[in-house]
Write a structure and sequence with these properties.
The chain has helices at 76-85, 97-102, 104-134, and strands at 4-7, 17-20, 29-31, 34-37, 40-43, 59-60, 73-74. Helix content is 35%, strand content 17%. It is α+β, with helices and mostly antiparallel strands. It has a three-stranded antiparallel sheet, with no helix packed on it. The mean pLDDT is 77.
Amino acid sequence: MCSTLKCRPNSNTSSCVFVRGLGAASGTTCDMGKACIHGVCTKNIRAPRDDCIFGDDVVVNELVIDEPLPYTQLSCEETLTYLSSINLYGPAYCSQEKFRQTCCKTCQSNRKKNITEIQSLLLITTITTRIRFDHL
């Protein structure tokens, strides 16, 4: 990406095109802990170390998940909403490598929500159990 950009020409296209000779500006994050410097992806202490540095991509119909989508491309949130509308548990798709890579921010967010929900359930269970034992 530092020396050649990759992009989709329009929202109806599932494949990307490469634009040679047009690279990212110096200082642009190009990988975890790296940034473009003079057209080369170089280690940089100021670059983000997050494992999802580029955020979510779009879900391309039948390339990211096997379920047919109503449109050629959907955002990750739109995909999860659609899957729920057809009685599929959308967040479960985060366990699939291709979906998790495409929707890394959405999957991270759902994982944090799930952890919070589990912690809340454990707390409620603990309190309920203590109340029961206190009444014995």
